[in-house]
Each structure stands twice: as C-alpha cells, then as structure tokens.
Write a structure and sequence with these properties.
heterodimer; A: about 450 residues; alpha/beta; 8-stranded mixed β-sheet; 6-stranded mixed β-sheet; about 30% helix; B: about 400 residues; 7-stranded mixed β-sheet; 10 helices
Amino acid sequence: MRFLPAASVLLPLALAASVLAQERPLALTGARIYPIAGEPIADGVLVVQGGKIVAVGAAGAVTVPAGAEVRALPPGKVILPGLVDSHSHIGGAQGGDGSGALHPEVRVLDALDARHASIQRAQAGGITTANVMPGSGQLISGQTLYLKLRDGRIIDDLLIRLADGSPAGGLKMANGTNPMRSPGGPFPGTRAKAAAMVRDQFIKAQEYQAKIARAKGDPEKLPARDLGLEMISEALAGRRIVQFHSHRHDDILTALRLRQEFGFKMVLHHVSEAWKVAPEIAAAGVPASAIVLDSPGGKLETRDLSFESPAALEKAGAEVGLHSDDPVIDSRHFLRSAAIAVRAGMSRPAALRAVTLANAKMLGLDDRVGTLAAGKDADFIVLSGDPFSVYTQIEETWVEGRRVFNLSDPADRTYALGGPGAGDARRTPLCCYTSAWDIILAANGALQQ
Amino acid sequence: MNRAARLALLLLLAPAAAPAAMPLAIQAGILYPVSGPPMRDALILIRDGRITFVGPAADRMFSADHQVVTAAVVTPGLIDARATVGLSGLLNQPHDQDMLERSAPVQPELRAIDAYNGGDPLVTWVRSLGVTTVNTGHAPGTLVSGQTMVVKTSGGTREREVLQPAAFITAALGGAGLNRAEGKAPGTRAKAVALLRAELIKAQEYVRKRGLPDETKRPARDLRLEALGRALDGSQRLLVTVHKVPDILAALRLAQEFNLRIVLDGCADAPLVLAEIKAAGFPVILHPTMARAGDDTENLAMDTAAKLAAAGIPFALQSGYESYVPKTRVVLFEAAVAAGRGLGLERALASVTLDAARILGVAERIGSIEVGKDADLALFDGDPFEYTTRVTATVISGELFRDGPR
C-alpha cells in the first residue's frame, strides 16, 4: 500500500484529458483486425470517434483523420469487435420467482446492480454487450435486459434504449425439467402440461390484444391493464424476442412448435442436444445459442451435451451463437467457448461470429454491435494474440469509444485474474464524480490498490 | 530383408509368450517425458503394460508385431490429483451420487473403493481428455467425509488399475466442513477444529489401548478410530480442504499438534500465506483454475499456480467436486488456464503428471515417460494445452483407448 500525493494531483488532470479526448478521433494501427463483417485484415487500422467507428480497413487504405490520436500497437496484437454474450446472469441478476411458473411481468431490470463485480469481470472477458436474463425455473420467468457494459454507477447507465426510450430486452422462457415441479402446485409436472400452460397464456394474450383492438381507444371498452399479457403481446408483435431455454432434442422441437403456432421471434438457448436436430433448427430459421460445458451431465436432460453441437448447427446452416450463462461459465472464459467449438469442428470464422455478430442478431442489435464497420458502436477488444489461444490475454476492452478494461491497470488485472478484491463492487468511474476533490480521493484510492 | 522384418521373423521363432495386449510403438513429433527435456521425433516402445524404450526414433528399430501409433505430441497420462468421478456420476441423480455421506460429521472409515464406479461415463469422459489416473473419493462437505483412492481410468478396479486403494482421509475445515443447520455440529469454524482435535485425541487413546499387552484390556475394534489412527501414524495421509487464511492456518496448527502428514487441498487464499505453507513443508493440491469464486473461495485466482511455483511450494492441480454443471471439471483444461496465466507449458504439464504423482506417492509407477514405468500416455494433435488441440488417444498400462478424438 503506497500513497503517492504527487500523483494524486497529476492523475486527475491526465484522466480529465482522456475524457476530453473523446471527441478527438483515435486511430489504432498495426493490429490484425477481425471485422467479422469481412475478411481479417493483417495490418489493420481502426478509427473511432464520438463513440462510433469511423473507419476500419488495411493500412494505407484508411485515411486517418487529421488531428487524430494515433496508437501504433506493438506487433502481434489482435482487434475483435466487443464480444456479445447472448445469455448471462451478471449484475446479481434475479427473477424467476418461485411462486409460480408464469411471470412475464417480472423485469430483471428491477434486480440488477450496476456495480456488481461480475460486470467488471465480464468487461475483463471482453464482453461489451450482454443479454442478462432471469432464470430458467419457470415457463416464463420474465423480461431480460440487453446491457452495454459501460462503466456506470447505476443500472440506467448500462441500458440500451430503443427508439421509444424503453430499455431493450427479450422475454425469457424455458421448457424441460427446470420449470417442472411435483404436481399439485402452480408448476407443470410433465412436459405436455408445460406446453399447454404456455399455449394457454399466449392465447390469452391474443384475446387481450383483440379486445384492445376492438375497443378502438374507448376507455370504457378497454380491458383492465395486465402487465404480463402486455409483455406476451410485445413478443407476439415481434417487438420482444423470446429467449427460449431448451436442452433435450424433443424439448427443442416443442419450442419450435410453439413458435410456429404463435409466430413470435425466438432464439433457442443451451440446445445441449442440438446435434440431434440441427437440420430442423436450421430449417425453422431459428437462431440457436449453444453452451459449451467441460463435461456433459449434471442433470438428465444434459446427458448428451456435446462439444460438437455448434459445429453441427453450423454445418446445417443455422445461425449459431455461444453464451456464457455466467456464472455457469465465468465471463472471463467466454472466448474459450468459441475455441472449444473450433476444437470440435466449428470453423474459425463461424466461432468468432458466434460470440459477436450471431449473438448481436439474436438480440436484434446487429445494426449497432457485433462487427467492426463504419457507423457501428466503437465496441472492440485488443488481444495479445490469436483469439483461440490459451496463451492469449485480453488486454483492453472498449465500449463506445471508452476503455472500460485495461489489463495493465492493477485493479483491472485483479478483476481479470482473481484474487482479493476481485469480488468487490466496481470502482466508481470518473464520469460520475462530482468534484475535483472526489477525483483526487479516488485517484489515491486507485493507487493504493 | 530389412531390419524390422528380420526382427519380426526372430519374434515368430521365439517361444510363445503369455497372452498380453499388443506391444505398442508410439511415434511422437514432440515428446514431453516431464522427467527430462522435451524430445523431437521420439519413439516410445511398450510391452506388457510397461515402457521398454524412450528415445530418438532414429536410434531404435522395433519388431513388426508392434501396433504403431503416431501423434504430434505425447505426454505422460494426466493425473487428476483430487476428484470425485466414479463416486459422483454423470447423471447427477440420487443413484449415482455417492461422494458425500451426511449422516455424521466424522466418518473416516468410508472407503472410496467401496463406492467407485469405474464404468460411469464421467470416468470415460475424463479419459477421453487425457486423464489416465485419478485420486478420487469422498467430496468435501463434512468435517471428515471419508477416503480417496488412486485408480486408473481404464474402467475397473482390478489390481493393476488400483495404485492405492486407500490413499487419503478427506477432511474439510471452513465452510465445506460445517453443518449450519440449527443444533448441528460443527456449526462454526472453531467448533470444527475442537471436534477434530477431540476425535484425534480419542484415536490416540484407542491406538494406545489396542496395543496393550493384556488382550482383555484392549477396546473393541472401531473402524472410525482405526482410520484416524492411520492418519496419526502417517500410514494414511490427511487431505485437508481449506480455502480461507484462518482455515489454512488451522490445518497447519493441527498438523503440528498431532505430528500429521497432511496435504492442503483447495487453498484459494494460498497467495496470502505462501511463507507459512512453505515453512510447514506440506504440498498443495490447488483448486481448479476455473473454479467459481465466492464464499470461501472469493479470493481464488487463475495465477495462483504460478505463485506457488515461484514460491517453490510443491503443488498439483485438480478437478475437484462440482454439484451441478459441469459435472466434472477436467485437469487438462484447468492446467491449460494455469499455463496461459503465468505457469507456462512445462510447469503446467508437471502439475498434472509427475508433480501430482509425487504428491500422491505413486511416482515410482506413473507421472513421467521413463523406461520401466507404467505405459500411461496422452496423445495430442498439437500443443496439449491449446484449446483447439484435440486428444487423439490415451494409453493406460499399455492398453490403447480411442475415446475421441476430443
């Protein structure tokens, strides 16, 4: 523990300068760039400004704007788009209330802690966008939330706002054994009962919508507001993507059948047995986000989980993503899942797409994130080498043109590797300090780590 | 007639040997014997379950009765220094979960060999990822949960497969050893240590009285105290699961008081007490690199293995116990992360081969590729720790297993 009074005066000035630099273009040069939108660029240039990507391309083919801050990276560095995790529980996510099987009205938004250390660890894992979900112990466990892993004080700082100002998110559903309980209570005891309960709920939502339509705005004729049916109506209207947990191949087919009947947008999650029904998933045009676990089992319906599911889905022509399900897989090992998928036969381009663009599409956010292209959010990561190598470190994570993780910062390094403090609440970021004195105190605090 | 064919002819003329697995000739692009420096273009010859030759392929011809297997990289078969596979099964249903008996806090008499199912698919799974030997047994979860055994992953418990039927007695201090239910003991850390001290003192008395010259004064046999007696005389070591600093120190204190030979298991907080662990001289079987942090393991780190290595503390890596998913971790993957987070390939490899064998006390048979040792190997199509490298086969006691490639 050291206290450096001299630095405590200088550091805030340096930090303030870097904030001001936001509007000045930043060009990173000399890295191998995987834009995902196109072929890898051996000697690439990435230019960002005002939170957006201005240009990406080969050295010589990209004009670096006058006045840009140019960072020539040492040889061997790799730049990828910020990783998109299509299924996570970071931020101390809760939801999925034990009182019943159907909770479309529950918002994970109301349970998240923006300072939870798991968010900092996800940044260390290169994740810049995450779909944070309630659990899978219910048929409908609630509304998920798509987060940008900015440095924020409160959850509002991490939200992705839709055009109407509402926070972007999906609707979490599940089948198989997780939402099943012993019969007699509010939970289904069997698979067919589970499907019938879901169908019943969706039909109620259709009728609710029909009543609203018939009322033509007449308050006397409008049905009483129902928060749950409102959310299912959003799914029926395609405004909210159903994020559907399903492991066994027959449960996957049941989910596809429900979607066929009601026409909602859907993403399949986990899909442990996808290798058995990959052609059916592909034919339905439903994207699937697979989990890669270090061993099969743990419950009956994941007995046949295989490293080969992502490869089988790719081969069948499905849109295939991967997810951490943090804390099932620690966000810091998210990129490893892509490498294990390659181990089991997935192509390298498809594996990189599976942790970036494919997941962005599954969240309906591919117009903003998932690739490195002009006009996209300036979300990217800098790696020390090959993205699939165990010897590679994620060195920097940037969200919307701000660096939110830097491995050479001792505090960030603790979040990346673990150790005392890695579970502590995140540091309050500079953006939200109220006075110069706060900045000085915070700088001293950071230096003492 | 070339030299190999001449040798084959000689062999045909030789008297018929007892039936045995076909001799193997393993050709390795890179061979990591672990006991010595890596070799390029190496050859390993195997007969009757043992290694008969290791060296440059150019130096040695072999007879045509060998089955020839080639691999880009060959290492010793991996050793998982602390597992529960075979007691905990893949399905995670009541019928295949025998790793923890909660009926009493101290049950050192529970033998792993009475519960181990070598045919469980979880055992096959770890074998498919290069693991040829496991120190498996009762999980942390009570103060003294039972015992472990050192067994090969070839599927059974035949004599040649079991290296140590009763390897360790398993104890846990800290959260894993407590029963927090109202009215149950031990409910707190200090009570746990007091309880264990009392049991060890009882065992000392028991051992003394069992040795009395007057047979009528000897107490009746007591399996529990007998087992603790073996911990006291060092014939069966104590594997103590500890994570927090006070628990690590409590284990060292117990070892000193009762002159115990212990191995520290888990040790998330090890970087905070490296000097104390080093001074005590006990080895560490470190928690899985990718284990989840929280509660007692809140401080665990991916670079702790590198810190133990730098401090000169003998250590091995483990898969540990998982109650849900993944149902087992795999030491190949855990060592890989350690390799990539400061430990490097060769030290990481040693932590799941020779160093593990030494800590388990089986290094005379396994852990390195040397003439005379058991022919236990892992074959890879590239750097063993790269995520994208696959295990192409394993060899256990000279028997070839092709579970993959995986």
